[in-house]
Amino acid sequence: MMVDGIIEMTKDWHYDVISMGFPGVIKHGLIQTEPKNLGDGWVGFDFSKAFGKPVKILNDAAMQALGSYEGSGVLLFLGLGTGLGTAIIAEGTILPMELAHLSYKKGTFEDYLGLRGLNKLGPEKWEKHVHSVVERFADAFLPDDIVLGGGNSKLLTTIPQGCRLGNNHLAFDGGFKLWE
After folding, report:
1. Sequence-ordered list of residues with C-beta below 8 angstroms from that of 87, at least 6 positions apart, any chain
2. What is the tens place of the pLDDT at every residue in 26-68?
3. CA distance 129 to 18
4. Structural domains for the chain
5. To which H or E segment does residue 22 belong?
């Protein structure tokens, strides 16, 4: 299993705790749903037992949102990658969202903004949908800050109004913040 490989790769590392971003629904530190792109066997998996260390798990989009958060107000995070990750942080409270699977046009938000949408629509139409969805979510959630992250955010030729680009390395900052 993947965990065995990670344990082997990190056997010479020195660490006391683990922060883990996971592409799925997390409640009370436990994975609730199997992720679309990683296969089965994750629901209820005990990572602390497997690694022999304390583990805090957070939705991967929420992890990057936490690393992007500047300490006050409402931040809306959209992760444009294989799928669509979404999270809100309101006055320091993390609210992982599963907006990707809500209806949008003839599918879901993820169908249009995820990698499948990019490949099907092409970059120009995909970018128009990104702008449209950002505007829609901004109207609904009234954020003070909007961060677009994920690998495909770099493909945008124009950044939607009121947004800034995130950086996947900010997920590491989010992981450290989990233990503060």
Report:
1. 59, 61, 62, 64, 65, 66, 76, 77, 94, 95, 96, 97
2. 988 889 988 877 778 889 889 999 999 999 999 999 999 999 9
3. 36
4. 1-180 (3.30.420.40)
5. strand 18-22
